[in-house]
């Protein structure tokens, strides 16, 4: 039991929530592990990309994103430059950089996404709708 009815929960405590995976228009699945207004400086999620899928070309306005690959492999494209990634690799994506990732392997690609400040839907900019597709 986390709290007794007569005790107040400390303001530094954020209760865990069932982190349900959901599909996004970005063409990947997301599980948010940490994304709350109580911690506006950072968010943490797991992204899952199925084999053969390339995520939507996009940028995050005002948000730096870091990838840490958990499993699988892929090719990350940032501002038109491509880099293969595999389990254990990391990438630092500057705020406003055009980005997408392709799962070129035979198993699912999973990676942690660490955003600073935290990810909010209003920072996401779909660059495919603007005719900026480079594939």
Main features:
mainly beta, globular, 135 residues, three-stranded antiparallel beta sheet
In short:
The protein contains no helices and eleven strands. It is mainly beta.
How would you characterize this protein structure?
The chain is mainly beta. It has no helices and eleven strands. Strands 1-2-3-10-5-8 form a six-stranded antiparallel sheet, with no helix packed on it. A three-stranded antiparallel sheet has the order 7-6-9, with no helix packed on it. Strands 4-11 form a two-stranded antiparallel sheet. It starts with 21 loop residues before the first strand and ends in a 9-residue tail after the last strand. The model has no long low-confidence stretch (mean pLDDT 91).
Q: What global shape is seen? A: globular
Strand percentage, roughly? 35-45%
- Give, in spatial order, the strands making up the sheet with the most strands: 1-2-3-10-5-8
Largest sheet: 6 strands, antiparallel
**Helix content range of the residues, please?**
under 10%
**H/E series, N to C?**
EEEEEEEEEEE
How far do the termini sit from each other? 52 Å
Total E-strand runs: 11
Structural class, by secondary structure, is mainly beta
Kindly provide the radius of gyration, computed on alpha-carbon positions and rounded to a whole number of angstroms.
17 Å
Unreliable spans are none
Number of helices: 0
Mean pLDDT: 91
Topology:
Elements: E1 22-23, E2 29-34, E3 43-49, E4 58-60, E5 64-71, E6 73-78, E7 81-86, E8 90-93, E9 99-102, E10 109-116, E11 124-126
Antiparallel strand pairs: 1-2, 2-3, 3-10, 4-11, 5-8, 5-10, 6-7, 6-9
């Amino acid at each position: 039991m986390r709290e007794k009815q007569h005790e107040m929960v400390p303001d530094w405590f954020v209760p865990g929530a069932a982190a349900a995976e959901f599909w996004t228009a970005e063409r990947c699945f997301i599980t948010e592990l940490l994304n709350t207004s109580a911690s506006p400086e950072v968010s943490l999620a797991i992204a899952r990309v199925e084999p053969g899928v390339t995520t939507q070309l996009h940028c995050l306005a005002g948000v730096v994103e870091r990838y840490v690959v958990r499993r699988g492999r892929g090719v990350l494209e940032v501002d038109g430059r491509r880099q293969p990634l595999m389990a254990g690799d990391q990438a630092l994506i500057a705020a406003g950089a055009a980005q997408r990732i392709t799962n070129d392997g035979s198993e699912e690609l999973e990676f942690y996404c660490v955003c600073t400040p935290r990810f909010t839907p209003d920072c996401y900019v779909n660059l495919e709708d603007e005719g900026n597709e480079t594939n």
